[in-house]
Amino acid sequence: MKNVLQKKQNKLGTNLFYSKNESWWLIGFSMLLASGIMIEPQLICASLLKGQLSDMWLYWSAAIGAAFSVSFFAHLWRKVPVKTENEFLFFRYSGRGAKILHNFRSLYLGLLVVPFIISFSLLAFSKIFCFIVGIEINLAIGLLTFLIILLTFFNSLRQRLKLDFVLFIVFIVLFLIIMISLFLNTGGLSHLATTVQSSKSNFNIIPSIGSKTFNAFIVFVLVQWWSASILDYPDMNGQKLMAANTSKDLLKSVFIPSLSIVLFRVFLFTLPFMAVCYGYASGSADSELAFTSLFVKVLPSWMLVLVVVVFLIPFLSMVQNTQNWGGSLLVENFYKHAINPNLSAAKAKKFGIIAMIYIIIISGGIAIYADSLVGITKYLFAITAGVGPVFMLRWYWWRINAWSQLSAMLAALIYPPVLDWFYDNNKTLHQLLISLEHNFNIDYYPIKLIILTIAVCITWLSVTFFTAPTEAKILQTFATTIKPGGFWKPFSNSGKTFSKLRLLAWLLQTGNGFLLYFIFWNFLIGSYVLFIVLLLLFVLGFFVSYKLIQKANANYDLESEK
């Protein structure tokens, strides 16, 4: 084992977990491929079979946060003078709190959150793989876990960026071949449009006002996107953005790949509708697996290999990118800082590979015992409810300290199971929440999200004002290096936010994110004139928001040079 590790790590370059001066297109397309783009059809199909397409706003509301991230945080990472995103904590915070937070976050994410994120993708692809190949899902999870363990020996950030770009091209070509074959074998677009229009199923994207789904939709678009989503790229994407050459390259890496894939997503969204409307998904015991039957029943058997590859490429990208980030947390951030600061580069690579293997084994175990993709998603949202504001404000408000972030993360981890326990075992609280569900015509999960958001925010705000601020020297260095603007009055030369430009760009991108689903709908029902008009509006909104952020970033760069 020792010789194998030594031989493989020599091929991985100087470091497994970070890189510098990478091309924008390598960064951008890697971020795109690793975003889980092939999981969405499974979730849409499950919602369609339930007769509630609008349930997808649990996921689609993330478009608001994604636009906010691009507008307000992407440009800041290039100036952070650290190797891994978690080391940002030492640059922003000080004292014992910074050390405790750094170690806690390294272990919390590396041992718990990262395996849960990977298990989501592992379960999603295993459902497809087991159905097409004809094996039990637990066996599929086991085989895929073993495959990823083997690929771990080749998993470095620099190699991953290059490989993702090549695989993205292969992925698009194979996807187009499969889509053309599907349309040829099912009567084409016109037949699909006629079938959708004549269907009695509920295909409403926006739920009926006053319904449970509508009230949940309101919570998702008004609360969840900022409360339960970490928007300032404190993940593998932050690691990649730090590898960009310039702020212009960084902006291109975030924007241009997302535009290039718009038509791909429109075609992608037709898959679950084809499966449901043509009856291929009916009778399936697992609604998240149902749309896979479309490929098995329509395509010739030899093409099923291509189908597996098309789903395998983004699956491996997402898993290995996340696995790499988890390895950096456990080795570069915890082991190297807390246990052995003098760790050699060779041993760091060896321990990095071991850490990544551990992560994927734990992920496989979670996937085996997970009930559904939706269940994993709701758990991840629950343990981050109320944390989002801390991650945003740490860039723009000097008073946020290490204890603020630590208390938010601990509260978000502890409060959900406590609330669930009281909901199940405390009669008074149970009746109170049931009455809220009845009076407001809403399910437990959105109420839970609101309660957790309020409780966690009260916790970290109280801790913030009851603890001392970060050392003035650290704050001044951060303000003058990053120059984020915002609320940094006690410190000089802290830069400007250029908030008007960024707010307008955010609103345009958010509108575009929602517009995409109406573009798809008009494509699906055969309203091609309106489809083209909306698509042109989308492209116009894209370029206007791109120019707005480009201008804001140019002003930011000029301000930073002062």
TrEMBL record:
Keyword Disulfide bond annotated: no
InterPro entries: Na/Glc_symporter_sf (IPR038377), Na/solute_symporter (IPR001734), Sodium:Solute_Symporter (IPR050277)
Membrane topology term: Multi-pass membrane protein
GO cellular component: plasma membrane
Reaction(s) catalysed by this chain's protein: L-proline(in) + Na(+)(in) = L-proline(out) + Na(+)(out)
GO molecular function terms noted in the UniProt entry: symporter activity
Cited PROSITE patterns: NA_SOLUT_SYMP_3 (PS50283)
Predominant location: membrane
A GO BP annotation: sodium ion transport
Sequence intervals crossing the membrane: 24-44, 56-77, 106-125, 131-153, 165-184, 214-233, 254-281, 301-319, 351-370, 376-397, 406-424, 444-466, 503-521, 527-546
Cellular localization per UniProt: Cell membrane
Family that this chain belongs to: Belongs to the sodium:solute symporter (SSF) (TC 2.A.21) family.
Protein name: Na+/proline symporter
